[in-house]
Amino acid sequence: MKTECNAKRVKFQGLDRREVIGQFDGGMITSDAGALLLRETERRTGILKSFSQCFTDFRDPERIDHTVLQLASQRVYGLALGYEDLNDHDRLRHDQLLAVLCGKPDPTGEDRNNPNDKGKPLAGKSTLNRLELTRADANKKNRYKKIVVHDEKIDDLFVDVFVNSHGKIPQRIILDVDATDDPLHGHQEGRFFHGYYKAYCYLPLYIFCEDHLLCARLRPAGIDGAAGTVEELDRIVKRIRAGWPEVQIIIRGDSGFCREQIMAWCEKEHVDFVLGLAKNSRLNRIIEQDVVEAEFKYRTSGRASRIYNDFEYQTRKSWSRSRRVISKAEYLPRGANPRYVVTSLSPQEASADVLYEKLYCARGDMENRIKEQQLYLFADRTSTAKMRSNQLRLYFSSIAYLLLSSFRRLALTGTSMAKAQCHTIREKLFKIGAKVKVTVRKVWVSLAESYPNRDLFLKIHEKLTTIPV
Known about the structure:
Layout: E1 4-5, E2 9-15, E3 18-23, E4 29-30, H1 36-45, H2 47-52, E5 55-57, H3 68-80, H4 89-92, H5 96-101, H6 125-133, E6 147-149, H7 151-164, E7 172-179, E8 182-183, E9 192-194, E10 199-202, E11 205-209, E12 212-217, H8 229-243, E13 248-253, H9 260-268, E14 272-277, H10 281-286, H11 288-301, E15 305-313, E16 323-332, E17 335-336, E18 339-343, H12 352-360, H13 364-376, H14 387-411, H15 422-430, E19 434-438, E20 443-447, H16 454-465
Parallel strand pairs: 7-13, 13-14
Antiparallel strand pairs: 1-2, 2-3, 4-19, 5-6, 7-11, 8-10, 9-10, 11-12, 14-18, 15-16, 16-17, 16-18, 19-20
């Protein structure tokens, strides 16, 4: 339908005899009041505080309005709340509720140094952009870009958050490794056309332990999908074992990570592995009889059938030793579907069927975690010219994931949203309209009375506030 718009009002379809008029004159109203729950999560985990300590700030403290913690918090909270672009922050810089989340002492912005910035408590897109584009060799002599990120500190932070999230030391942990595509639509540094994905892209490497993110490494696509995995695993495993020396560690991945270098490193470091193994003619010949039997069962029953087996196997050139291989001779309506897994686990530790069905197939959940971060926390917004700044954008998205994952673990366990993904959490718990009023002694947040998840919100708040700080 046709609308009539001007700077102050929008006319909508009438209601009986009444006109329906919209105006942007409601005062200081936020659409993200539920994000105060995220602030309570940060208070108990210190993720953003630790993240801000991974930067070196060469700015003159007497001439700045926003600390590194406030800038990093604004960027991460923005992603968590669904604001993927820096351009969004030219309007968000007025949001007093977001200023509260970021720890601004005066959420009205009246304490800003520049008279033109008064009433704008947060940073605009240009300031946040300079944070992302600072060079690694920046120092006090640089004019604008003076906040340097230290990648190695952020990498350690991921592992530290994982270790600190456990109340007691686990007996066994499984580290899932995977690579995915990050499509590019410009001429970014490191772009490469990947034949499998049929697009120019990056090829980031992810390592998870259940829903805990341990590594998010941006890489060019012109490399093997497993490149750099040993270096990342070596760093992560050493840091984990520094606190948990006796824990059993299992590396799990698809056939793209079945590399001699990875398996040899695992065997050297006493780390177990369960890796997919690409089928070939030699392997298929070994299980020929199993396939025949599986086909007979399928023809007899009319249902998909599978037969598991295990045997010692060594490639003719690439492997340095023989290893245990699990085979699945499966027959489906479309025909034979053989699958293989190579592992360091003995038959006493896991039988062939249990290892494949219960252990190996569970790696599929990691793909959901990657999609969650890419689709809903905008890990694929790598549109700057340089790979270093795109890696920082991936870090911002990863920290947002850590914060939301911690919120899910601390606040949602035992509720109807215990397994909810980030976008569901955002839409049901954070996107609440509220009026914000700042007085000398208080910040009043008047949430919408019609909010449908009020009881759940109050339950989550009570649960969070009982956790010691």
